[in-house]
Amino acid sequence: MKIIGLIPTRMNSSRLPYKSLLPINGIPMIVHVYKRSKLAKKLDDLIICCDDKKILSIAKKYNIKAMLTSKHHSNGTERIAEASSKLKKKYDIIVDIQGDEPLISPYHIDQVVDYHIKNFNSDIILPSLKIKPINSTNIVKIVKDRSNNVLYLSRSNIPFEFKSNVKFLYKHLSIISFKNKALQKYSLKKKTYLEKIEDIELLRALEIGLKIKSVNLNGDSFSVDVLEDYQKASEYMKNDKFFKLYK
After folding, report:
1. Which of 35, 69, 188, 200 could bond to 246 as cystine, CB 3.0-4.6 Å?
2. All residues at 6 or more sequence positions from 198 whose CB lies less than 8 Å from its CB, including other chains
3. What angle do the packed helices 29-37 and 53-61 form, to 10 degrees?
4. Residue 174 φ then ψ, to 5°
5. Helices 106-118 + 29-37 axis angle, to 10
6. Which CATH number fits the domain that encloses residue 67?
7. In degrees rounded to 5, what are phi and psi of residue 136?
8. What is the pLDDT of residues 172-181, one digit of tens each?
9. Which residues 6+ apart lie within 8 Å of 169 measured at CB?
10. What pTM does this model have?
11. What pLDDT score does 220 carry?
12. Number of domains making up the chain
């Protein structure tokens, strides 16, 4: 199978403007994501998909592959769908690696790809991490069945503690593996009802009938959504084992 990693990123984030270019230990955040993803062994190629020439310029400075996409996409999945449709080569699996996780693990990328190859009857693979219950709408939580099929995603804590306490939650990790056909099918549909309510792009995939399976991973990673996340990432990066391989 041919596998490509696409890293969607945009300039104007509402919660933390220009975050993709914010320096973390002297290196722009989007460069961290690319360099770490490049350490994965299962990707045949890797490209940043951006909406601004400033990001394109930074990519060129660091000798990174990048592609300019439309400014009008509502989410990263739409952005990588546009990019994948422009590629000369056709890929079986397209891995969406979010551009706001500067501490992403290349091991996690490889694990997700391996899992999708073994479960290729699934349209999408969405990894999860076990976390302690936390009241944060910035963290997307997953509910899945006993066969690891995703039933629902929410910014609320699900399941709800009605009769007993919840010991842990499943957190959505921002590496999403798509079958090429599933990604294109997603991109042809408009925003769906639940997607509009929760502002979670993969709810569209569930609503249009795409099959999402989840694999639970060990370790940790987090998105940089607000200033506090950025400060935490800057601190964690100082002692990060992967950072030492490309700094």
Report:
1. 35
2. 153, 154, 155
3. 50
4. -85, 50
5. 50
6. 3.90.550.10
7. -140, 120
8. 998 999 999 9
9. 130, 131, 132, 133, 134, 141, 157, 158
10. 0.94
11. 83
12. 1
